[in-house]
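Friendly challenge for the regulars: who can give me the structure tokens for this chain first? No prize, just bragging rights.
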Amino acid sequence: MRSLVVGRFQPLHIGHLKMLEYAASKSKYLVIGLGSCNKSGTWDNPFTAEEREEMIKESLEVETPYDIKRIPDFDDDGRWIQWIRENLGFDVFMTNSIHERRIFEGAGVKVLDIPFFNRNIYSATEVRKRILEDRDWAALLPVGTVKVLTRINGRDRIKKLKN
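First reply, four minutes later:
Bragging rights claimed.
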């Protein structure tokens, strides 16, 4: 089964990593959709597509073959799902998002659930908030993501974007 999972990964945190590992464990091939690839440099989307790809590649260790595909935002669910169906080859969509489930099922795509992994702790918004408040943010991230953020000076970027 060729599965698609989508995320913005701003930044990739342990919850994202667990989601990707789960999806890989249920798939013969995993397509990782890098959402909002055309947006960066804002509080909600501080990192570029290239930087987020690095975070995934530095952090994800699975035996299942995978590929990372960039998915632009269209600010229109219909155009977004049409673009995905025309440009990404997959058999099933995997998600824990009610909104994404509705969009994909509405387009006739088979959808499988992914469980949340400590959602109350692991969120990219929480990571960015902790960086802003000089609290322990690195504990929420895989080592590979911490390496990328250190290399690109991501901590300072997030602080500048909020001010």
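Residues 14-25 form the longest helix (12 residues). The first strand starts at residue 2 and ends at 7. Your move, everyone else.
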